[in-house]
Design brief:
With 620 residues, the chain is of the alpha+beta class. It has helices at 21-39, 44-57, 59-62, 66-69, 76-93, 96-105, 112-127, 132-149, 155-168, 177-189, 205-221, 237-240, 263-270, 307-313, 358-365, 400-407, 428-443, 449-462, 470-474, 477-495, 498-510, 515-530, 535-552, 557-568, 579-583, 592-617, and strands at residues 247-252, 275-281, 284-287, 300-304, 319-323, 339-345, 368-374, 377-379, 393-398, 412-414. Helix 5 packs antiparallel against helix 20, helix 9 (155-168) packs antiparallel against helix 11 and helix 10 runs antiparallel to helix 24.
Amino acid sequence: MPLPACVFIAQATVTRPELTTDALVVFGVVVLALVLFLTERLPIDVTAILLIVVLVVLEPWTGVDPETGISGFANEATITVLAMLILSGGISRTGVVQELGRRMAAFAGDSLRKQLFATVAATSPVSGFLNNTPVVALLVPVVTDVANRGNTSPSKLLIPLSYASQMGGMLTLIGTSTNILASDVSARLGSQYPELHRFSMFEFTGLGAIVVVVGSLYLIFVGHYLLPERVPPNADYLEEYKVGDYLADLAIIPGSPLVGETVRDATESLGPEIDVVQVIRDEVRSVAPRQATPLREGDVLVVRTNRDAIATLEDAAGVELVGGPGSAAELSTDAETGVLTELVVSLDSRLVGERLDPESFREEFNAAVLGLRSHGELVADRIVGNRLDVGDTLLVQAPPDTLDRLARRDDVIVAREPPRPDYRTDKAPVAIAIMVGVVAVAALELYPILVSALAGVVAMVVTGVLEPNELYDAVEWDIIFLLAGVIPLGIALEASGGAAYLAWLVVQSAGFLPPIAVLWLFYILTGLLTEVISNNASVVLLLPVAAAAGAGIGANPFAFVLAVTFAASTAFLGPIGYQTNLFVYGPGGYRFGDYFRIGAPLQLLLSVVTVGGIALFWGV
């Protein structure tokens, strides 16, 4: 029987658990994990594998044998998340999400509040049934175009897009991978706490709907006042990236040794800092020319370089500088010649950690790199050799027929819609029917969500919604490896008594508070921890502690599990805490403080709403 919220708990009623050597060793592994997640010295998936290795090597203290160490790969939550990512990929191939976004935005016009309403209304409900990460990736170009058509700064809409997807993810069990993982941990803890169980499909939909409504009202009527216009409406990309300062036009003169040679030869001759982005021949422009493109006398090479290299081009052999810095005005940017757009490095991109090589990029993506924003800051001068990270934004120019292919790649997110999108629109009804069937089977508890989701994956392939080779492309493998790595860490924390000891510390520190106040503190603690490590890792680490603390003060452990789950999926204070925040970082031109300015009041508001709703629906 849960205690009323007004009852005060005496610290002396909770027995102090023993702090064992095993718990201290596990705490050391947790600290290692936190440091690696915070510093990002290693990719997330590599960090996850390292955690498995460390836990198994320290088996005498962690209790994690090889079988337990790799159990995360076969865990129900991991496989379910994998299946849901594939299902989301199938839906995205049909263009349903993009079409919904366009239709909801059609009435918005130049009214900012209508644009915000359209953004929230198109994002939140969809994010309740599709993984919100691909939803945001699909809607970034749609929302950017809505802003530009309505003469609104994209900065006013893109953070609300990310936040709306996070709130919408709390509508159902399958809205986010965090919910699925939390459900699995809750089921495992059920052997200790009878109140805990696996979440049903619509277990917390009522509370999620309240969170969506309150958060949406804040974004529509309050939040936009707190967001500056970092990117002006219909921004001139060339001006925003200061491209003109680093472009030069080089004419191949008669008798030049480059006549008859290729673009690759010209690059090698001119130096490693030079990148040929266009070749002009007889007033016809070739955008992102291939390395094997032959050169002729009179060709004009449009090159992108840095200030120091531009100064040396006047003396370069075989070419004449016919347009120096500022020649961006002459850079053709019409859609027939080459489309200018931004590409955001995605979460599972092969580009993460690689140094930018414009030549290799052009060969692989058929796009010329003109500018770079790294961690939100413009890299104005030397872009060659910069190490790329998630959320970095590349300004590129590509032929029109290339843009659609780029939009379908998993390495990058295109910040504007392709002029000729190639979706499997005829498969949209089939994809929607499969998704409805997956949800219905799980909701009616005919079969577990794991079984229905895997059956949905098979149905997507059999009906042609997805090609077999596209299954692997639809999965964000770093998330899968992260789940597989942190699950045994959570098991070790619980089995070693570390979770119980941390719970005792919380009770000792806040034992004089009413249970609902302790519940609110766990919400805030989870939100802050999620800002520095992943949302999935924070759930695995804090759920056992929260459940033990709730039971220790005579409260409802399930209420504490829900508080941690909701807080981990709503990270609003910075671009790091949640991957969708990173996706809008570059296209919105944001700075780190912009997230805190609009996100801190929202986080505080939803902490009160969520904790109050939990107390109302489930009791504390």
